[in-house]
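Let's do one together. I've listed all components of the complex below, 588 residues spread over two lines.
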Amino acid sequence: MNIAEKILAFASGKDEVKPGEIIDAKVDMAMVNEITGPLAIQAFKEIGTPKVWDRNRVVMVLDHQVPADSVKSAELHKIMRAFAKEQEIPFFYDVGYGGVCHQVMVEKGHVCPGELVVGADSHTCTYGAVGAFATGIGSTEMAGVFATGTIWLKVPSTIKVNITGKFQRFVTPKDVILYVIGKVGADGANYRAVEFTGPSIGNVSVSGRMTLCNMTVEMGAKTGLISPDKVTLEYIKDVTDKQFKILASDENASYEREVEVNLEKLGPQVACPHSVDNVKPVKDVEGTQIDQAFIGSCTNGRLEDLELAAKFLYGKKIAKNVRLIISPASQDVYMQALKRGLFEVFLKAGALVCNPTCGACFGGHMGLLAPGEVCVSASNRNFIGRMGSPEAKVYLASPATVAASAVAGKIVDPSTLGEA
Amino acid sequence: MKVSGKAVVYGDDVNTDVIIPSKFLTLLDPTELSKHAMEGIDPKFVEKAKNGVVLVAAKNFGCGSSREQAPLALKYAGVKCVVADSFARIFYRNAINIGLPVLECPDASSQIEEGDLLSINLDEGLIVNETNKRVIKATKLPGFILEILQDGGLIAHIKKKGGKIRDL
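Okay, and this is what the predicted structure of the assembly comes out as:
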Protein backbone atom coordinates (compact mmCIF):
# COMPACT_ATOMS: atom_id res chain seq x y z
CA MET A 1 0.00 0.00 0.00
CA ASN A 2 1.03 3.64 -0.39
CA ILE A 3 1.03 6.07 2.53
CA ALA A 4 -2.49 7.37 1.85
CA GLU A 5 -3.92 3.84 1.82
CA LYS A 6 -1.97 2.82 4.93
CA ILE A 7 -3.22 5.77 6.97
CA LEU A 8 -6.83 5.19 5.91
CA ALA A 9 -6.55 1.47 6.64
CA PHE A 10 -5.14 2.23 10.11
CA ALA A 11 -7.82 4.88 10.80
CA SER A 12 -10.60 2.48 9.83
CA GLY A 13 -9.20 -0.53 11.67
CA LYS A 14 -8.56 -2.57 8.54
CA ASP A 15 -5.52 -4.52 7.40
CA GLU A 16 -5.87 -3.26 3.88
CA VAL A 17 -7.91 -0.79 1.82
CA LYS A 18 -8.22 -0.31 -1.92
CA PRO A 19 -8.97 2.80 -4.01
CA GLY A 20 -12.71 3.25 -4.49
CA GLU A 21 -13.62 1.55 -1.21
CA ILE A 22 -15.78 3.58 1.20
CA ILE A 23 -14.53 3.44 4.78
CA ASP A 24 -15.65 4.81 8.13
CA ALA A 25 -12.60 6.25 9.81
CA LYS A 26 -11.69 7.61 13.21
CA VAL A 27 -10.52 11.21 13.12
CA ASP A 28 -7.33 12.09 15.03
CA MET A 29 -7.62 15.88 14.85
CA ALA A 30 -10.29 18.32 13.63
CA MET A 31 -9.75 22.01 12.89
CA VAL A 32 -12.13 24.92 12.25
CA ASN A 33 -11.55 28.62 11.60
CA GLU A 34 -13.95 31.53 12.06
CA ILE A 35 -15.27 31.35 8.49
CA THR A 36 -16.33 27.70 8.70
CA GLY A 37 -16.59 27.25 12.48
CA PRO A 38 -19.78 29.21 13.23
CA LEU A 39 -21.79 27.16 10.69
CA ALA A 40 -20.30 23.97 12.14
CA ILE A 41 -21.20 25.07 15.66
CA GLN A 42 -24.76 25.88 14.57
CA ALA A 43 -25.09 22.45 12.91
CA PHE A 44 -23.53 20.71 15.94
CA LYS A 45 -26.10 22.34 18.22
CA GLU A 46 -28.87 21.14 15.92
CA ILE A 47 -27.66 17.56 16.30
CA GLY A 48 -28.11 18.03 20.02
CA THR A 49 -25.02 16.15 21.28
CA PRO A 50 -23.96 18.19 24.32
CA LYS A 51 -20.16 17.78 24.04
CA VAL A 52 -17.67 17.30 21.20
CA TRP A 53 -16.40 13.73 21.00
CA ASP A 54 -12.95 14.63 22.34
CA ARG A 55 -12.10 18.21 23.24
CA ASN A 56 -8.36 17.47 23.05
CA ARG A 57 -8.70 16.63 19.36
CA VAL A 58 -10.37 19.87 18.31
CA VAL A 59 -8.39 22.96 17.27
CA MET A 60 -10.10 26.32 16.74
CA VAL A 61 -8.30 29.21 15.06
CA LEU A 62 -9.26 32.80 14.25
CA ASP A 63 -7.35 33.72 11.09
CA HIS A 64 -9.39 34.86 8.10
CA GLN A 65 -10.52 38.24 9.38
CA VAL A 66 -8.01 39.00 12.13
CA PRO A 67 -8.26 41.39 13.83
CA ALA A 68 -11.99 41.68 13.18
CA ASP A 69 -12.46 44.01 10.22
CA SER A 70 -16.19 44.51 10.70
CA VAL A 71 -18.89 44.04 13.28
CA LYS A 72 -20.02 40.89 11.44
CA SER A 73 -16.51 39.40 11.67
CA ALA A 74 -16.36 40.31 15.35
CA GLU A 75 -19.63 38.42 15.83
CA LEU A 76 -18.12 35.30 14.19
CA HIS A 77 -15.10 35.58 16.50
CA LYS A 78 -17.46 35.87 19.47
CA ILE A 79 -19.33 32.69 18.47
CA MET A 80 -15.98 30.83 18.26
CA ARG A 81 -14.82 32.12 21.66
CA ALA A 82 -18.06 31.17 23.33
CA PHE A 83 -17.98 27.63 21.89
CA ALA A 84 -14.33 27.12 22.88
CA LYS A 85 -15.23 28.17 26.43
CA GLU A 86 -18.40 26.10 26.64
CA GLN A 87 -16.68 22.97 25.30
CA GLU A 88 -13.46 23.64 27.23
CA ILE A 89 -11.38 23.35 24.07
CA PRO A 90 -7.73 23.67 25.11
CA PHE A 91 -6.47 24.53 21.63
CA PHE A 92 -8.27 27.75 20.82
CA TYR A 93 -6.08 30.35 19.11
CA ASP A 94 -7.54 33.79 19.64
CA VAL A 95 -6.34 37.03 18.02
CA GLY A 96 -2.66 37.44 18.82
CA TYR A 97 -2.00 33.79 19.67
CA GLY A 98 -1.94 31.70 16.53
CA GLY A 99 -1.94 32.85 12.95
CA VAL A 100 -3.04 31.20 9.73
CA CYS A 101 -4.68 27.94 10.81
CA HIS A 102 -2.60 25.53 8.71
CA GLN A 103 0.69 27.02 9.88
CA VAL A 104 -0.57 26.82 13.46
CA MET A 105 -1.64 23.18 13.11
CA VAL A 106 1.84 22.10 12.01
CA GLU A 107 4.12 24.39 14.02
CA LYS A 108 2.22 23.84 17.28
CA GLY A 109 2.53 20.08 16.86
CA HIS A 110 -1.19 19.36 16.44
CA VAL A 111 -0.47 17.03 13.52
CA CYS A 112 1.70 13.92 13.70
CA PRO A 113 2.79 11.45 11.03
CA GLY A 114 0.27 8.69 10.35
CA GLU A 115 -2.73 10.66 11.58
CA LEU A 116 -6.05 11.32 9.88
CA VAL A 117 -6.82 15.02 10.17
CA VAL A 118 -9.84 16.90 8.88
CA GLY A 119 -10.15 20.65 8.71
CA ALA A 120 -12.98 22.90 7.63
CA ASP A 121 -10.75 24.67 5.14
CA SER A 122 -9.67 23.44 1.72
CA HIS A 123 -5.94 23.92 2.40
CA THR A 124 -6.03 21.36 5.22
CA CYS A 125 -4.15 19.11 2.77
CA THR A 126 -1.02 21.07 3.84
CA TYR A 127 -0.38 18.68 6.75
CA GLY A 128 0.64 15.85 4.45
CA ALA A 129 4.00 17.63 4.70
CA VAL A 130 4.53 15.79 8.00
CA GLY A 131 3.18 12.46 6.75
CA ALA A 132 -0.46 12.79 7.83
CA PHE A 133 -3.57 12.21 5.70
CA ALA A 134 -5.28 15.58 5.97
CA THR A 135 -8.28 16.73 4.00
CA GLY A 136 -10.63 19.68 3.80
CA ILE A 137 -14.31 19.29 4.64
CA GLY A 138 -17.29 21.60 5.05
CA SER A 139 -19.00 22.92 8.14
CA THR A 140 -21.91 20.48 8.42
CA GLU A 141 -19.54 17.57 7.88
CA MET A 142 -17.43 18.99 10.70
CA ALA A 143 -20.49 19.05 12.96
CA GLY A 144 -20.81 15.33 12.23
CA VAL A 145 -17.14 14.86 13.22
CA PHE A 146 -17.63 16.90 16.39
CA ALA A 147 -20.53 14.65 17.33
CA THR A 148 -19.15 11.25 16.31
CA GLY A 149 -15.37 11.52 15.91
CA THR A 150 -15.73 9.67 12.64
CA ILE A 151 -16.07 10.40 8.94
CA TRP A 152 -16.85 8.36 5.82
CA LEU A 153 -14.24 8.61 3.11
CA LYS A 154 -13.72 7.07 -0.28
CA VAL A 155 -10.18 5.69 -0.50
CA PRO A 156 -8.54 7.75 -3.26
CA SER A 157 -6.28 6.48 -5.96
CA THR A 158 -2.90 8.18 -5.83
CA ILE A 159 -0.82 10.21 -8.26
CA LYS A 160 2.91 9.94 -7.60
CA VAL A 161 5.06 13.00 -8.23
CA ASN A 162 8.68 11.94 -8.59
CA ILE A 163 11.12 14.79 -7.97
CA THR A 164 14.68 14.39 -9.19
CA GLY A 165 17.74 16.64 -9.62
CA LYS A 166 18.96 19.75 -7.83
CA PHE A 167 17.00 22.97 -7.30
CA GLN A 168 18.31 25.69 -9.58
CA ARG A 169 19.16 29.10 -8.14
CA PHE A 170 16.06 30.90 -6.77
CA VAL A 171 13.77 28.07 -7.81
CA THR A 172 11.57 26.92 -4.92
CA PRO A 173 9.00 24.29 -3.96
CA LYS A 174 6.34 26.85 -5.06
CA ASP A 175 7.71 26.64 -8.60
CA VAL A 176 7.56 22.83 -8.40
CA ILE A 177 3.93 22.74 -7.34
CA LEU A 178 2.88 25.37 -9.90
CA TYR A 179 4.61 23.33 -12.59
CA VAL A 180 2.84 20.14 -11.46
CA ILE A 181 -0.58 21.87 -11.36
CA GLY A 182 0.04 23.19 -14.87
CA LYS A 183 0.78 19.68 -16.06
CA VAL A 184 -2.02 17.86 -14.19
CA GLY A 185 -4.73 20.55 -14.58
CA ALA A 186 -7.21 22.18 -12.18
CA ASP A 187 -9.25 18.97 -11.94
CA GLY A 188 -6.54 16.45 -12.84
CA ALA A 189 -6.20 15.15 -9.30
CA ASN A 190 -9.90 15.31 -8.44
CA TYR A 191 -10.83 12.83 -5.66
CA ARG A 192 -7.20 11.61 -5.66
CA ALA A 193 -4.24 11.75 -3.33
CA VAL A 194 -0.96 13.25 -4.56
CA GLU A 195 2.23 11.83 -3.09
CA PHE A 196 5.56 13.62 -3.51
CA THR A 197 8.55 11.36 -3.58
CA GLY A 198 11.86 10.79 -5.36
CA PRO A 199 15.54 11.31 -4.62
CA SER A 200 15.22 15.10 -4.19
CA ILE A 201 12.39 15.21 -1.64
CA GLY A 202 14.94 14.64 1.14
CA ASN A 203 16.39 18.08 0.32
CA VAL A 204 13.07 19.84 0.83
CA SER A 205 12.40 21.25 4.32
CA VAL A 206 9.07 20.83 6.13
CA SER A 207 8.34 24.45 5.18
CA GLY A 208 8.84 23.65 1.48
CA ARG A 209 6.89 20.41 1.84
CA MET A 210 3.98 22.38 3.29
CA THR A 211 3.98 24.56 0.15
CA LEU A 212 3.95 21.45 -2.06
CA CYS A 213 1.11 19.71 -0.20
CA ASN A 214 -0.84 22.95 0.37
CA MET A 215 -1.55 23.54 -3.30
CA THR A 216 -2.53 19.97 -4.23
CA VAL A 217 -6.15 21.06 -3.67
CA GLU A 218 -5.72 23.45 -6.61
CA MET A 219 -5.72 20.38 -8.85
CA GLY A 220 -8.67 18.90 -6.98
CA ALA A 221 -6.75 16.54 -4.70
CA LYS A 222 -8.22 15.13 -1.52
CA THR A 223 -4.81 15.32 0.07
CA GLY A 224 -1.13 15.83 -0.72
CA LEU A 225 1.38 13.88 1.29
CA ILE A 226 4.99 12.84 1.76
CA SER A 227 6.17 9.66 3.51
CA PRO A 228 7.86 10.59 6.78
CA ASP A 229 11.68 10.61 6.71
CA LYS A 230 14.58 12.08 8.68
CA VAL A 231 13.48 15.64 7.83
CA THR A 232 9.95 14.96 9.15
CA LEU A 233 11.06 13.29 12.36
CA GLU A 234 13.63 16.01 13.15
CA TYR A 235 10.87 18.59 12.78
CA ILE A 236 8.23 16.69 14.74
CA LYS A 237 10.42 16.02 17.77
CA ASP A 238 10.82 19.77 18.25
CA VAL A 239 7.11 20.56 18.15
CA THR A 240 5.41 17.73 20.02
CA ASP A 241 5.94 14.78 22.30
CA LYS A 242 2.72 13.07 21.20
CA GLN A 243 2.97 9.38 20.35
CA PHE A 244 2.48 8.49 16.70
CA LYS A 245 2.82 5.69 14.20
CA ILE A 246 5.11 6.06 11.21
CA LEU A 247 3.32 4.96 8.06
CA ALA A 248 5.18 5.21 4.75
CA SER A 249 4.66 3.94 1.22
CA ASP A 250 5.85 0.41 0.42
CA GLU A 251 8.39 0.04 -2.37
CA ASN A 252 5.87 -1.88 -4.45
CA ALA A 253 2.92 0.43 -3.68
CA SER A 254 0.59 1.09 -6.59
CA TYR A 255 -0.24 4.43 -8.16
CA GLU A 256 -2.75 5.58 -10.72
CA ARG A 257 -0.10 7.52 -12.61
CA GLU A 258 3.26 9.17 -12.19
CA VAL A 259 4.39 12.71 -12.90
CA GLU A 260 8.08 13.49 -13.29
CA VAL A 261 9.72 16.74 -12.17
CA ASN A 262 13.35 17.20 -13.15
CA LEU A 263 14.67 20.09 -11.08
CA GLU A 264 17.70 20.44 -13.34
CA LYS A 265 15.35 21.79 -16.01
CA LEU A 266 12.87 23.71 -13.87
CA GLY A 267 12.93 27.52 -13.81
CA PRO A 268 10.64 29.90 -11.89
CA GLN A 269 6.96 29.39 -12.72
CA VAL A 270 3.90 31.62 -12.61
CA ALA A 271 0.15 30.85 -12.69
CA CYS A 272 -1.47 33.49 -14.90
CA PRO A 273 -5.01 34.88 -14.53
CA HIS A 274 -7.61 33.49 -13.88
CA SER A 275 -6.86 29.86 -13.10
CA VAL A 276 -4.19 28.12 -11.06
CA ASP A 277 -3.41 25.69 -13.89
CA ASN A 278 -2.65 28.48 -16.37
CA VAL A 279 1.05 28.01 -15.63
CA LYS A 280 3.96 29.43 -17.62
CA PRO A 281 7.67 29.96 -17.06
CA VAL A 282 8.10 33.40 -15.44
CA LYS A 283 10.26 34.50 -18.37
CA ASP A 284 7.21 34.25 -20.67
CA VAL A 285 5.40 37.03 -18.78
CA GLU A 286 8.41 39.16 -17.83
CA GLY A 287 7.68 42.86 -18.09
CA THR A 288 4.02 42.61 -17.00
CA GLN A 289 3.39 45.80 -14.98
CA ILE A 290 2.18 45.29 -11.41
CA ASP A 291 0.36 47.41 -8.85
CA GLN A 292 0.61 45.15 -5.82
CA ALA A 293 2.83 42.34 -4.59
CA PHE A 294 1.91 40.01 -1.74
CA ILE A 295 3.93 37.55 0.34
CA GLY A 296 2.13 35.52 2.97
CA SER A 297 -0.66 32.93 3.46
CA CYS A 298 -0.60 29.23 4.32
CA THR A 299 1.27 28.73 1.04
CA ASN A 300 4.27 31.04 1.40
CA GLY A 301 4.21 32.95 4.67
CA ARG A 302 6.88 30.98 6.52
CA LEU A 303 10.31 32.09 7.75
CA GLU A 304 12.07 30.43 4.81
CA ASP A 305 9.84 32.39 2.42
CA LEU A 306 10.43 35.69 4.19
CA GLU A 307 14.21 35.11 4.29
CA LEU A 308 14.21 34.40 0.57
CA ALA A 309 12.23 37.58 -0.11
CA ALA A 310 14.65 39.59 2.05
CA LYS A 311 17.53 38.58 -0.25
CA PHE A 312 15.89 40.60 -3.00
CA LEU A 313 14.82 43.49 -0.80
CA TYR A 314 17.96 44.12 1.26
CA GLY A 315 19.17 47.67 0.59
CA LYS A 316 16.66 48.14 -2.22
CA LYS A 317 13.49 50.19 -2.66
CA ILE A 318 10.22 48.87 -3.96
CA ALA A 319 9.34 50.42 -7.32
CA LYS A 320 7.25 53.58 -7.34
CA ASN A 321 3.51 52.97 -7.69
CA VAL A 322 3.89 49.41 -6.37
CA ARG A 323 2.93 48.33 -2.87
CA LEU A 324 4.38 45.21 -1.26
CA ILE A 325 2.32 43.62 1.51
CA ILE A 326 3.98 41.01 3.72
CA SER A 327 1.97 38.96 6.20
CA PRO A 328 3.90 36.30 8.18
CA ALA A 329 1.91 33.08 8.47
CA SER A 330 1.83 33.00 12.27
CA GLN A 331 2.75 34.81 15.46
CA ASP A 332 5.72 32.43 15.81
CA VAL A 333 6.93 33.21 12.29
CA TYR A 334 6.38 36.91 13.04
CA MET A 335 8.58 36.69 16.14
CA GLN A 336 11.34 34.78 14.33
CA ALA A 337 11.32 37.22 11.42
CA LEU A 338 11.46 40.12 13.88
CA LYS A 339 14.42 38.61 15.76
CA ARG A 340 16.30 38.01 12.54
CA GLY A 341 15.94 41.60 11.48
CA LEU A 342 13.84 40.82 8.42
CA PHE A 343 11.28 43.50 9.23
CA GLU A 344 13.96 46.17 9.11
CA VAL A 345 14.87 45.02 5.61
CA PHE A 346 11.19 45.01 4.57
CA LEU A 347 10.35 48.37 6.12
CA LYS A 348 13.42 50.10 4.67
CA ALA A 349 12.45 48.76 1.26
CA GLY A 350 9.01 50.32 1.66
CA ALA A 351 6.99 47.16 2.32
CA LEU A 352 3.98 47.08 4.61
CA VAL A 353 4.27 44.31 7.20
CA CYS A 354 0.85 43.11 8.39
CA ASN A 355 -0.16 40.73 11.13
CA PRO A 356 -0.68 37.02 10.40
CA THR A 357 -4.04 36.58 8.63
CA CYS A 358 -5.61 35.05 5.53
CA GLY A 359 -6.79 38.61 4.71
CA ALA A 360 -5.28 39.60 1.37
CA CYS A 361 -5.02 36.05 -0.01
CA PHE A 362 -8.73 35.37 0.26
CA GLY A 363 -9.84 38.89 -0.58
CA GLY A 364 -11.23 39.53 2.88
CA HIS A 365 -9.33 42.63 4.02
CA MET A 366 -5.84 44.15 4.26
CA GLY A 367 -4.93 44.71 0.66
CA LEU A 368 -7.81 44.29 -1.79
CA LEU A 369 -7.32 45.10 -5.47
CA ALA A 370 -9.15 47.79 -7.44
CA PRO A 371 -10.62 47.16 -10.94
CA GLY A 372 -7.88 46.92 -13.55
CA GLU A 373 -5.09 46.35 -11.02
CA VAL A 374 -2.49 43.58 -11.28
CA CYS A 375 -1.03 41.68 -8.33
CA VAL A 376 1.84 39.21 -8.21
CA SER A 377 1.21 37.03 -5.20
CA ALA A 378 2.94 34.25 -3.28
CA SER A 379 -0.47 32.85 -2.33
CA ASN A 380 -2.60 30.06 -3.74
CA ARG A 381 -5.55 31.22 -5.84
CA ASN A 382 -5.95 33.64 -8.75
CA PHE A 383 -9.67 33.15 -9.44
CA ILE A 384 -11.74 36.05 -10.73
CA GLY A 385 -12.35 38.36 -7.77
CA ARG A 386 -10.26 36.29 -5.37
CA MET A 387 -8.15 39.19 -4.09
CA GLY A 388 -10.66 41.98 -4.58
CA SER A 389 -12.28 43.36 -7.71
CA PRO A 390 -13.47 40.85 -10.34
CA GLU A 391 -11.70 43.13 -12.84
CA ALA A 392 -8.29 42.71 -11.15
CA LYS A 393 -5.67 40.19 -12.24
CA VAL A 394 -3.57 37.92 -10.02
CA TYR A 395 -0.34 36.12 -10.97
CA LEU A 396 0.79 33.43 -8.54
CA ALA A 397 4.51 32.94 -8.02
CA SER A 398 7.24 32.16 -5.48
CA PRO A 399 8.34 34.65 -2.79
CA ALA A 400 11.55 35.14 -4.81
CA THR A 401 9.64 36.11 -7.95
CA VAL A 402 7.26 38.34 -5.97
CA ALA A 403 10.03 40.18 -4.11
CA ALA A 404 12.15 40.65 -7.24
CA SER A 405 9.08 41.86 -9.15
CA ALA A 406 8.15 44.34 -6.38
CA VAL A 407 11.58 45.97 -6.76
CA ALA A 408 11.39 46.00 -10.55
CA GLY A 409 7.75 47.22 -10.71
CA LYS A 410 7.01 44.48 -13.20
CA ILE A 411 7.19 40.71 -13.24
CA VAL A 412 10.81 39.56 -13.48
CA ASP A 413 12.53 36.18 -13.40
CA PRO A 414 14.50 36.05 -10.12
CA SER A 415 16.89 33.46 -11.49
CA THR A 416 18.35 36.08 -13.84
CA LEU A 417 19.08 38.52 -10.98
CA GLY A 418 21.84 38.75 -8.41
CA GLU A 419 21.10 38.89 -4.69
CA ALA A 420 20.88 42.29 -3.08
CA MET B 1 -36.30 11.27 -5.17
CA LYS B 2 -37.40 13.31 -8.18
CA VAL B 3 -36.74 16.91 -9.11
CA SER B 4 -37.44 18.98 -12.19
CA GLY B 5 -36.75 22.44 -13.50
CA LYS B 6 -35.32 24.50 -16.30
CA ALA B 7 -31.58 24.39 -16.86
CA VAL B 8 -29.26 27.31 -16.16
CA VAL B 9 -25.94 26.41 -17.79
CA TYR B 10 -22.32 27.33 -16.96
CA GLY B 11 -18.89 26.15 -18.13
CA ASP B 12 -15.78 24.52 -16.64
CA ASP B 13 -14.13 25.16 -13.26
CA VAL B 14 -16.84 27.33 -11.67
CA ASN B 15 -15.14 28.00 -8.31
CA THR B 16 -16.60 28.74 -4.89
CA ASP B 17 -15.18 32.29 -4.93
CA VAL B 18 -17.53 33.15 -7.80
CA ILE B 19 -20.44 31.10 -6.41
CA ILE B 20 -20.28 33.19 -3.24
CA PRO B 21 -17.53 35.84 -3.08
CA SER B 22 -15.46 36.01 0.16
CA LYS B 23 -16.90 39.35 1.22
CA PHE B 24 -20.26 37.72 1.93
CA LEU B 25 -18.92 34.90 4.12
CA THR B 26 -19.72 36.79 7.29
CA LEU B 27 -23.45 36.37 6.51
CA LEU B 28 -24.85 33.51 8.57
CA ASP B 29 -28.43 33.70 7.26
CA PRO B 30 -28.73 31.49 4.14
CA THR B 31 -31.47 33.71 2.68
CA GLU B 32 -29.14 36.71 2.89
CA LEU B 33 -26.31 34.65 1.35
CA SER B 34 -28.53 33.50 -1.50
CA LYS B 35 -29.03 37.10 -2.67
CA HIS B 36 -25.39 36.99 -3.82
CA ALA B 37 -25.33 33.50 -5.36
CA MET B 38 -23.15 33.31 -8.50
CA GLU B 39 -22.62 37.05 -8.24
CA GLY B 40 -18.99 36.57 -9.27
CA ILE B 41 -19.89 35.44 -12.80
CA ASP B 42 -23.59 36.01 -13.35
CA PRO B 43 -25.32 38.96 -11.67
CA LYS B 44 -28.63 37.83 -13.24
CA PHE B 45 -28.52 34.37 -11.63
CA VAL B 46 -30.65 35.22 -8.59
CA GLU B 47 -33.44 36.47 -10.85
CA LYS B 48 -33.19 33.37 -13.09
CA ALA B 49 -33.21 30.93 -10.17
CA LYS B 50 -35.97 32.33 -7.99
CA ASN B 51 -38.73 30.01 -9.21
CA GLY B 52 -36.57 26.90 -9.06
CA VAL B 53 -33.93 25.73 -11.54
CA VAL B 54 -31.47 22.94 -12.21
CA LEU B 55 -27.92 24.30 -12.34
CA VAL B 56 -25.94 22.55 -15.08
CA ALA B 57 -22.17 22.89 -15.45
CA ALA B 58 -19.24 21.30 -17.25
CA LYS B 59 -16.22 19.91 -15.43
CA ASN B 60 -14.92 20.57 -11.90
CA PHE B 61 -17.92 22.49 -10.56
CA GLY B 62 -17.32 24.02 -7.12
CA CYS B 63 -13.53 23.92 -7.11
CA GLY B 64 -11.64 26.06 -4.63
CA SER B 65 -12.43 26.68 -0.99
CA SER B 66 -14.35 24.50 1.45
CA ARG B 67 -16.98 27.17 2.12
CA GLU B 68 -20.32 25.49 2.65
CA GLN B 69 -21.83 28.90 2.03
CA ALA B 70 -21.49 28.04 -1.69
CA PRO B 71 -24.05 25.19 -1.87
CA LEU B 72 -26.16 26.97 0.79
CA ALA B 73 -26.39 30.12 -1.34
CA LEU B 74 -27.39 28.04 -4.39
CA LYS B 75 -29.99 26.04 -2.48
CA TYR B 76 -31.67 29.08 -0.99
CA ALA B 77 -31.53 30.93 -4.33
CA GLY B 78 -33.77 28.23 -5.79
CA VAL B 79 -31.42 25.56 -7.17
CA LYS B 80 -33.15 22.17 -6.87
CA CYS B 81 -30.25 20.09 -8.14
CA VAL B 82 -26.76 20.64 -9.55
CA VAL B 83 -25.85 18.47 -12.53
CA ALA B 84 -22.25 18.65 -13.77
CA ASP B 85 -19.81 16.70 -15.94
CA SER B 86 -17.72 16.46 -12.76
CA PHE B 87 -17.50 18.09 -9.32
CA ALA B 88 -14.75 19.23 -7.00
CA ARG B 89 -14.94 16.93 -4.01
CA ILE B 90 -15.50 19.31 -1.09
CA PHE B 91 -18.38 21.08 -2.84
CA TYR B 92 -19.89 17.69 -3.68
CA ARG B 93 -19.86 16.52 -0.07
CA ASN B 94 -21.03 19.90 1.25
CA ALA B 95 -24.02 19.89 -1.10
CA ILE B 96 -25.09 16.43 0.05
CA ASN B 97 -24.59 17.38 3.71
CA ILE B 98 -26.87 20.41 3.43
CA GLY B 99 -29.43 18.44 1.41
CA LEU B 100 -28.82 19.91 -2.05
CA PRO B 101 -28.97 17.08 -4.62
CA VAL B 102 -25.91 16.76 -6.88
CA LEU B 103 -25.55 14.44 -9.82
CA GLU B 104 -22.39 13.71 -11.73
CA CYS B 105 -23.16 13.21 -15.39
CA PRO B 106 -20.26 13.17 -17.88
CA ASP B 107 -22.58 14.13 -20.76
CA ALA B 108 -24.37 16.96 -18.98
CA SER B 109 -22.72 19.90 -20.69
CA SER B 110 -22.94 18.35 -24.17
CA GLN B 111 -26.60 17.24 -23.89
CA ILE B 112 -28.21 20.12 -22.03
CA GLU B 113 -28.74 23.69 -23.16
CA GLU B 114 -29.83 26.82 -21.31
CA GLY B 115 -33.57 26.73 -20.72
CA ASP B 116 -34.05 22.97 -21.37
CA LEU B 117 -36.66 21.43 -19.09
CA LEU B 118 -35.13 18.57 -17.08
CA SER B 119 -36.80 15.77 -15.10
CA ILE B 120 -34.35 14.05 -12.79
CA ASN B 121 -34.71 10.72 -11.04
CA LEU B 122 -32.00 10.66 -8.39
CA ASP B 123 -32.62 7.06 -7.30
CA GLU B 124 -32.07 5.79 -10.84
CA GLY B 125 -29.42 8.37 -11.79
CA LEU B 126 -31.37 9.34 -14.90
CA ILE B 127 -32.04 12.74 -16.43
CA VAL B 128 -34.78 13.23 -19.01
CA ASN B 129 -34.28 16.31 -21.15
CA GLU B 130 -37.96 17.04 -21.86
CA THR B 131 -37.01 19.71 -24.40
CA ASN B 132 -35.09 17.45 -26.80
CA LYS B 133 -36.58 14.17 -25.48
CA ARG B 134 -33.18 12.68 -24.72
CA VAL B 135 -32.47 10.44 -21.73
CA ILE B 136 -29.07 11.11 -20.16
CA LYS B 137 -27.37 8.64 -17.83
CA ALA B 138 -25.74 10.01 -14.71
CA THR B 139 -23.57 8.32 -12.08
CA LYS B 140 -25.93 6.71 -9.57
CA LEU B 141 -25.49 7.91 -6.00
CA PRO B 142 -24.60 5.25 -3.39
CA GLY B 143 -27.53 4.21 -1.18
CA PHE B 144 -26.33 5.89 2.00
CA ILE B 145 -25.82 9.21 0.19
CA LEU B 146 -29.34 9.03 -1.23
CA GLU B 147 -30.54 8.39 2.28
CA ILE B 148 -28.75 11.53 3.57
CA LEU B 149 -30.41 13.55 0.77
CA GLN B 150 -33.83 12.02 1.48
CA ASP B 151 -33.46 12.94 5.13
CA GLY B 152 -32.79 16.53 4.08
CA GLY B 153 -29.07 16.59 4.89
CA LEU B 154 -26.51 15.20 7.32
CA ILE B 155 -27.85 16.78 10.51
CA ALA B 156 -31.37 15.41 10.12
CA HIS B 157 -29.81 12.11 9.04
CA ILE B 158 -27.60 11.81 12.15
CA LYS B 159 -30.58 12.66 14.36
CA LYS B 160 -32.65 9.97 12.68
CA LYS B 161 -29.85 7.44 13.07
CA GLY B 162 -29.51 8.18 16.77
CA GLY B 163 -26.10 9.85 16.59
CA LYS B 164 -24.53 7.76 13.82
CA ILE B 165 -23.69 8.61 10.22
CA ARG B 166 -23.69 5.13 8.70
CA ASP B 167 -24.72 1.67 9.85
CA LEU B 168 -21.49 -0.25 10.36
